[in-house]
């Protein structure tokens, strides 16, 4: 299940990025500046999320907490159509130039959700490592699954989804998917029980 | 690692500029990978014609006769001028979205020297090409704005009598210049009796064409369609006012402009080709919006119209 969550979150990140280009175009065009802003903001969000996720994972990680973390981007996605239009329009009116405008718009619209989605990778790695003992294999598998999810997310979105449904509906759909994912995370109630033991016995090296 | 790096460098040095598919009679005058596109300026030394295009010859964006640079070479540029017959008076404020070789604005300003012309072109290299190879010159009545067409239209406070939309490349159509929201913004910048002319390329009748018909119809009170004889180009003419124009009045008006402004193209003949958009309407086609516009896919799909 954890692996499935990692896969889906990887898919959603990249799918959201592709849809982001569509969201920005009406106000900022689709130039190389727009793509550059979009990609760098997503990467900034992910790197911040990895860092934060790693720290969070060191204090009693559990699948329930992971579920709580996913609710945030879930809600942001579900309400995306409500704020994306007014926010882009406002930034358009400020007219800060062909580079700064799309950079700011990307930051406002896409940074926070990508931070939350970035948390997922290190957090799930910790959750799985402390219940198993083959940390290298686990981390490798999770990285692979997350990136594989991203590939699938990119391809499905740009090849098919965009030709079937509207952009706003797709982003809201992703939000719903994230919220639904929190349910199994809540009920499976996976904890880092070994972590508590390791405080005494040092079985699981948290460094 | 080193080997991969060397391979990459090799690919990058071999790949880019190589003068795509030249005929023996063609001479490459200029090529560049600009911020937005691959630009190639070609001269056909036998036909004495000069073109600017992307990759393949079907992707010609503009051109001139080398010996008669003031004539219009490409069919859609000649055909677009028929839209002037839908105006009740001479246009004073004009906007071109997409410069190409600059042949249309140059031709227009030669016939209407009093008109004020704005041109929105996203690519500064295209402007440089138009100036260097196609005799295009800005002056105080004709200005080029380096900006995305949609952003220029959203930002400008001016209203226009005549707006010409020609910003689609054959191989790549920016979706944000096809949507209902965009066309509403265009209509917003038209004077009460203003007219829009758009160059729509549909080599075979595709879904993109169907959707454009329905999207224009939804935005403007009236749409008229002109079909190219030699090319896969259509010119869409849409009016801001709800006044209906019949074929006779358009032909009469075309004839009048033709002699008054000394057009060397047969506007009346083009006017006679006017078709009501009903002939092309197909209810099954989807209206394109900012939310839903799979333009690139629709270009490759055959029309669903019976």
- Which outline of chain A best applies? elongated
CATH class wording of chain B: Alpha Beta
CATH level 3 topology of chain B: Rossmann fold
H/E element order of chain A: HHHHHHHH
Beta strand % of chain B: 15-25%
What does this 3D model show about the protein?
- The complex is a heterodimer of chains A (207) and B (306).
- By secondary structure, chain A is an all-alpha fold.
- The longest helix of chain A is centred in the middle third of the chain and has 32 residues, at 100-131.
- Chain A has eight helices and no strands.
- Chain B is of the alpha/beta class.
- Chain B has one domain (75-298): Rossmann fold, CATH 3.40.50.
- In chain B, the strands form two sheets. An eight-stranded mixed β-sheet of chain B has the order 7-6-5-8-9-11-10-12.
- In chain B, β6, α4 and β7 (142-146) form a beta-alpha-beta unit.
- In chain B, α6 packs across α7.
- The relative contact order of chain B is 0.13.
- Chains A and B meet through α1 and α7 of A and α5 of B.
